[in-house]
Prior knowledge:
By secondary structure, this protein is mainly alpha-helical. Helix content is 46%, strand content 9%. The strands form 2 sheets. A 3-stranded antiparallel sheet has the order 1-2-3. The protein has a 3-stranded antiparallel sheet with strand order 4-5-6.
Amino acid sequence: MRMPSGYGSIIKLKGNRRRPYQVRLTKGFTDEGKQIYMYLGYFEKKEQAMIALSDYQSSPYDITRETITFEEVYKKMTKEHFPRVSDSAIENYSNCFRKYCKCLYKTRFKDIRLTHLQGVIDDSGMAHPTRAMIKTLFRLMFKFAMKNDIVDKDYSQYVDVGQREGKINRTPFTEEEIQKLFDNVDKLEFVDTVLIMIFSGLRVGELLDIKIENVHLDEGYMIGGLKTKAGINRTIPINSKIEPYIRRYYEKNKDKEYLITNFKGNQMQYSNYRREKWDNIIEQLEMKHRPHDCRHTFASLMDRANANKLATKRIIGHSAPDITDGVYTHKTLEDLKEAIALI
Length: 343
């Protein structure tokens, strides 16, 4: 049976195939006049192919939604989502996609089920934080896919990442260790960044994300912060103990975009900092600490100095626990500088 012009065609493919009937449509022409095809699907019987083609012509839909792969959804999602998140978050999502999701790249997104997603999690062999990050990536992709009518069910919500492997013990730096860091500022590269985090409450990703334009040395503060609503773009007063180190980075990189840069003058990534800088410092100084211990140390120092608790929360980026602190109390820059000067 000959189809009307522009209606589409059904082709029986050669060989012993389980679904030999291919349905295709012409979506355009090359400069040479050659047809460009889009494929509606493959079917076991010709009657099934006819029905599929008829259904499409009676209510046309975007074929790409039927054929779009996991990899293609990821690329489309990132164009929409990545401009709204931090560089460190982008790096985390990109690593999860590149390292653990290759087995799904060419799978049609509409064919992905819980077993596929759970398989990626189970085969990753990673600890809970990484498994949780992979699940978050899945949730973002399914949210994008549902919003664009690619799928109508979110299987990512059922993925099991297991329980966190016990509470991570946060060990603050001792006074002796802090002094040891000061003593080695000019002996070990990037030791000063550890001190900057200890006396500012910044996370590694937050420090690496601070831009030169947000460092106000004369006024004595920086603007930075990630993660939570209370933590994003917060005011961070500069403690006098670390002001020389921040000033040194500022003078060195004032023609660059970021305060802390790699050897090429570009923003340093968390993974590079952790592997090339932090691990080396901790090993050389014979200490046992995680990067987040700096933030824990800051909170401990502020507490021991009896600094105003609300000011500490504002500097760290924690939301106030009650409406009085959160709504009616306003902490000025001078209040924050006065609090941080206590340590």
